[in-house]
């Protein structure tokens, strides 16, 4: 009999957890949501434990934050060591070694031959905000183009770039000006109603027409895109689409910003997802798995572009905190030593085989997509009409949680299940989680 990682001792949530959730409801705004009704107490690898001692398999990973796993020992050690030496000085007051070393390593890891520079902030949204500021400063232009289905954050600018109204934008307008949207290469739901074999990259042609339709190229500072859209439902476009967008940008003196907040750090089977598309972005934003759970984000860009802002025009009090930077250096060591890029591909192939088998059995799975260990299934009521199966998606996620597997949804239509388990997960744990998922499909699909 296989050894199980999941261990459920009480009802879910248990009695201790229920008391804490009551306090949570009393003192914490409902807008700060929870995926699952549990209160975590500790974690290790791909296992999350609640206050009642119940152990769950985590296929969410802090929403893409824990590629190296919960409480990776080398990350914990680096945090402790740095905390004993220097917790904060503010980089604007006194520079420190972890910031400088991490900036050097990420600048060198960024794809392409052009020399790079790196700055740090705290969150993915802050990274995108700063990338937009840098692009505007460098180009002297004010407009930004984003894509349908995109998610870039919840601040004013990043919310303006984001394409899902509820829950991210509803009631929070007016939004930042000079933001324009173009159709993304969502091949399963082609915005032009074409089959992939017949499309001839209509989405790239349409993107180029935005300069005639909505905004002159002379006023556009940057185009921002996710190489694989995260909240949009892990939409993974053809290589030719990303390359086509890059070419249009180059022809019109427009910067290309690759938002790698969710795709970076080995998740897609390359260190950065854009490597697979064989392009060199002008700027990369990243966060989430950069520091193994510590708050940190980065903007990596070509030197000339990054040096456009003058001293004091970018940055922040906590940006590039020394403890977070030390954690990030440990993450880079783990990715290299444990070969997490190769492991991402290996686990992704293994998972894709199982999900393909489920797709054959259960017609509710309309599409399976993603790159590396960043995979998702889109659920539909009918494979011909592709009507979103929102209710069944929720039932499957709830059923999995009751059996100890934590999952998260996504997609404009809220009918996608995305998988972001730590890349450090064991193959036995992956199989255990997939068995629970398949049982849920068998019950509800």
UniProtKB/TrEMBL annotation:
Sample GO molecular function, one term: identical protein binding
Catalytic activity: (S)-3-amino-2-methylpropanoate + 2-oxoglutarate = 2-methyl-3-oxopropanoate + L-glutamate; 4-aminobutanoate + 2-oxoglutarate = succinate semialdehyde + L-glutamate
Entry-linked PROSITE patterns: AA_TRANSFER_CLASS_3
Pfam families, per database record: Aminotran_3
Example of a GO biological process term: gamma-aminobutyric acid metabolic process
Enzyme Commission number, as recorded: 2.6.1.19, 2.6.1.22
This protein's UniProt keywords: Aminotransferase, Pyridoxal phosphate, Transferase
Pathway the protein takes part in: Amino-acid degradation; 4-aminobutanoate degradation
Keyword Transferase in record: yes
SUPFAM superfamilies reported for this sequence: PLP-dependent transferases (SSF53383)
Cofactor(s) named in the record: pyridoxal 5'-phosphate
Family designation: Belongs to the class-III pyridoxal-phosphate-dependent aminotransferase family.
PANTHER family listed in its UniProt record: AMINOTRANSFERASE CLASS III, LEUCINE_METHIONINE RACEMASE
Protein name per the record: (S)-3-amino-2-methylpropionate transaminase
């Amino acid at each position: 009999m296989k050894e199980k990682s999941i261990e459920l001792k009480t009802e879910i949530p248990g009695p201790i957890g229920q008391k804490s959730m009551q306090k949570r409801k009393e003192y914490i705004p409902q807008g700060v949501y929870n995926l699952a009704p549990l209160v975590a107490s500790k974690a290790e690898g791909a296992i999350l434990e609640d206050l009642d001692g119940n152990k769950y398999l985590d296929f969410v990973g802090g929403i893409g934050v824990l590629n190296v796993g919960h409480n990776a020992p080398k990350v914990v050690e680096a945090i402790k060591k740095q905390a004993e030496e220097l917790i904060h000085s503010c980089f604007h007051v006194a520079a420190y070694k972890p910031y400088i070393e991490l900036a050097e390593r990420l600048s060198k890891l960024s794809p392409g031959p052009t020399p790079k520079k790196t700055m740090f902030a705290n969150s993915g949204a802050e990274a995108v905000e700063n990338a937009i500021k840098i692009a505007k400063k460098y180009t002297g232009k004010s407009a930004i183009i984003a894509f349908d289905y995109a998610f870039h954050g919840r601040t004013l600018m990043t919310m303006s770039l984001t394409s899902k109204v509820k829950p991210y934008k509803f009631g929070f307008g007016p939004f930042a000006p000079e933001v324009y949207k173009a159709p993304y290469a969502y091949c399963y739901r082609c915005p032009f109603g074409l089959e992939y074999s017949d499309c001839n990259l209509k989405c790239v042609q349409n993107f180029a027409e935005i300069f005639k339709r909505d905004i002159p190229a002379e006023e556009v500072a940057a185009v921002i895109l996710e190489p694989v859209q995260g909240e949009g439902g892990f939409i993974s476009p053809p290589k030719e689409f990303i390359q086509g967008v890059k070419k249009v940008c180059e022809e019109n003196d427009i910067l290309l910003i690759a938002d790698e907040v969710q795709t970076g750090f080995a998740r897609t089977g390359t260190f950065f997802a854009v490597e697979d598309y064989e392009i060199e972005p002008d700027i990369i934003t990243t966060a989430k798995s950069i520091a193994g759970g510590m708050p940190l984000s980065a903007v990596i860009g070509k030197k000339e572009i990054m040096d456009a802002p003058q001293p004091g025009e970018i940055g922040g009090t906590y940006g590039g905190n020394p403890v977070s930077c030390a954690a990030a250096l440990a993450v880079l060591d783990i990715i290299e030593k444990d070969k997490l890029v190769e492991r991402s591909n290996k686990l992704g192939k293994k998972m894709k085989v199982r999900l393909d088998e489920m797709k054959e059995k259960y017609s509710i799975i309309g599409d399976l997509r993603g790159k590396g260990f960043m995979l998702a299934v889109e659920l539909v009521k009918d494979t011909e009409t592709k009507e979103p199966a929102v209710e069944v998606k929720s039932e499957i996620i709830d059923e999995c949680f009751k059996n100890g597997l934590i999952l998260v949804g996504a997609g404009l239509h809220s009918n996608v299940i995305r998988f972001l388990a730590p890349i450090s997960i064991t193959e036995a744990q992956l199989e255990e989680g997939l068995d629970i998922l398949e049982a849920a499909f068998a019950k509800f699909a």
